[in-house]
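Milestone 3.1: sequence recovery, worked example.
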């Protein structure tokens, strides 16, 4: 696994992108609002600088954080990702639309994950042709500080 796409650049999404990037994964951070992507990159930069100053990130991890992240406004930018982590608003209809779109544009081998804490993964998987590759990856907030991820099968 080398490339991770994160859908949604809000608090959870940009935190997930930051953690993945500092661990040397290529990350595509996707949001339909360009200004949200700009805010997310600014937040990531501040966060990694703070973590680095406290000795929680190495020089290499700090440098990797922004170098490894690209941004996009179209879900299709996730096409080559090995893992896609959805972190959009907690609304079942919106999440189902995102999963249906991801099912169309990603490779059949790609794992589709949701950061949901309350929406049925079985329902999300049902809108795809690969329910066996749909999982929950529930990150805890603040993502860069919490070393716990709950992984749930659909």
């Amino acid at each position: 696994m080398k490339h991770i796409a994160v859908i949604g650049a809000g608090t959870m999404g940009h935190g997930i992108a930051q953690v993945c990037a500092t661990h040397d994964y290529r990350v595509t951070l996707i949001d339909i609002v360009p200004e949200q992507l700009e805010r997310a990159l600014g937040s990531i930069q501040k966060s990694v600088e703070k973590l680095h100053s406290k000795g929680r990130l190495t020089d290499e991890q700090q440098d990797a954080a922004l170098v490894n992240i690209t941004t996009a406004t179209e879900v299709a930018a996730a096409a080559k990702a090995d893992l896609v982590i959805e972190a959009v608003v907690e609304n079942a209809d919106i999440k189902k639309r995102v999963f249906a779109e991801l099912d169309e544009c990603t490779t059949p081998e790609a794992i589709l994950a949701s950061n949901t804490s309350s929406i049925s993964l079985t329902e999300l998987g049902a809108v795809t042709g690969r329910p066996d590759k749909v999982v929950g990856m529930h990150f805890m907030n603040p993502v860069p500080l919490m070393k716990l991820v709950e992984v749930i099968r659909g």
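The longest strand covers residues 134-139. The chain has five helices and seven strands.
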